[in-house]
């Protein structure tokens, strides 16, 4: 069964990020469809998905529509038990569900003060007392999960779970605003930012430009604190080493240069998502290494 997933934006929509991660990081087949969250067409775009009013929204092959990321997560966990969206251990699963639910409904200061943005890291942001309290609670939860259940891997419960899906935008906020956290939280943020799927999401988001940019602050900023991308740039002329796009298999029409080599893609989006983070795309990496 292939699902349709409706999302609003990649650089700023935290709930859209959650919706996407709960499919791709568990290898559940999905087609992504964009909704005009910032373009003013969201109501029209969601008209056929009633009673949905917000993103993300998913629709299955039978036409059943499910909105709200928590409802989506529980539905997918129920339908795909072999995918292990929640930890298999009962105690770990109970705590993971608790953390997902608390993330879904809580941390209002973090949400209000630090809208998710994946463009850069703000410098000099001053957290309020309420935001600091949210951060302390988040650190307590992350430390508890890692201490009790996380010794088998780098994620909150060792293996990747829905808890990591729901806290990914939290990690992005901590990174994007350079928020003060301890060692356990910093390590977990670094793990999230290095995740291949997270990097792909961010790279796709960077292909979209905004004027004005949502949630801009009058603060200086520096580079995004995740893994530094391999230098690359789009080029208008040259001869690509490949004749078909590594993603679609279609003939190349758009070019990218990296490390003195030119590669071709079937459209601007395929090219641009790649030049924003070439190492985030296994199909491109495999093609580059095989040539």
The amount of helix comes to 40-55%
CATH architecture of the largest domain, please? Up-down Bundle
Shape verdict? globular
- Tell me which oligomeric state these chains represent: single chain
Strand percentage:
5-15%
Query: Total number of helical segments?
Result: 11
Mean pLDDT: 97
The SSE string, one letter per element, is EHEHEEHHHEHHHHEEEEHH
Brief synopsis:
Helices cover 43% and strands 11% of the residues. With 291 residues, it is α+β, with helices and mostly antiparallel strands.
Identify the notable features of this structure and list them briefly.
single chain, 291 residues, alpha+beta, Glutaredoxin, Glutathione S-transferase Yfyf (Class Pi), Chain A, domain 2, four-stranded mixed sheet, three-stranded antiparallel sheet, 11 helices
Task: Give a written overview of the molecule.
α1 packs parallel to α3, α4 packs across α7 and α9 crosses α10. Strands 2-1-3-4 form a four-stranded mixed beta sheet, covered by helices on one side. It has eleven helices and nine strands. The protein has three domains: 80 residues, Glutaredoxin; 116 residues, Glutathione S-transferase Yfyf (Class Pi), Chain A, domain 2, CATH 1.20.1050; 62 residues, no CATH class. The protein has 291 residues and is of the alpha+beta class. The longest helix is centred in the middle third of the chain and has 21 residues.
Secondary-structure topology with pairs:
Elements lengths: L2 E5 L6 H11 L5 E5 L7 H4 L11 E3 L5 E3 L1 H11 L10 H16 L2 H6 L7 E2 L6 H21 L12 H15 L6 H12 L1 H10 L15 E2 L10 E3 L18 E5 L2 E5 L2 H9 L5 H9 L1
Parallel strand pairs: 1-2
Antiparallel strand pairs: 1-3, 3-4, 5-6, 7-8, 8-9
